[in-house]
From TrEMBL:
It comes from Crinalium epipsammum PCC 9333. One of its GO terms (molecular function) is deacetylase activity. It comes from the Bacteria. Signal peptide: none annotated. Residues 1-172 form the Macro domain. InterPro entries: Macro_dom, Macro_dom-like. The lineage of its organism: Bacteria, Bacillati, Cyanobacteriota, Cyanophyceae, Gomontiellales. Pfam families: Macro. This is Appr-1-p processing domain protein.
Amino acid sequence: MIKSKIAVIQGDITQQQVDAIVNAANNSLLGGGGVDGAIHRAAGSKLLAECRKLQGCATGEAKITKGYNLPAQWVIHTVGPVWQGGKHGEDELLAQCYRNSLALADKYEISSIAFPGISTGIYSFPIQRAAKIAVTEVKKFLESDTKVEQVILVAFSETAYNAYVAAIQEIVCE
Ligand code: AR6
């Protein structure tokens, strides 16, 4: 049951036909490289204009904007932790990114949402460890009372794709 609500795909998150995509942003919310840059390019300059009004975002928190030129109606911006070896609260902060993004999705009655591998690029969080945290938090959330129907974990590389598939096999029962 839960398993059918979680999908893994390899591809570009900006192309996803979902209600909301999640952005792996930085504390300024004013754009950057990686998936953040790709989302801002695809959404157009109105996204940056709306982000300027949000006055940044703390690590582990999430804020929502419209999606503008994206297929997705909403963008949920969250800020993952910078990997510092794993003993500086990185796991918990990454878990908070997923929890807070999903809570916002619920609040906005979003039924489908796609996540990139938050922190697993420029912020260097190891993908296998991040994938387990992502799957654990998504599973917990889908087991709660929510209207979210579909969560897509978007892998950019084959390595990331394999990490998500392995994490789902390990963590989510049939
Ligand atoms: N679609 C899906 N996934 C992508 C895409 C895409 N178009 N592009 C990259 N990825 P990163 P972070 C993957 O570096 O580690 C920005 O400058 C990528 O392979 O985008 O959280 C922000 O402004 C990786 O697995 O985000 C921050 O300063 C994952 O997305 C900083 O980077 C996240 O990689 C945040 O670093």
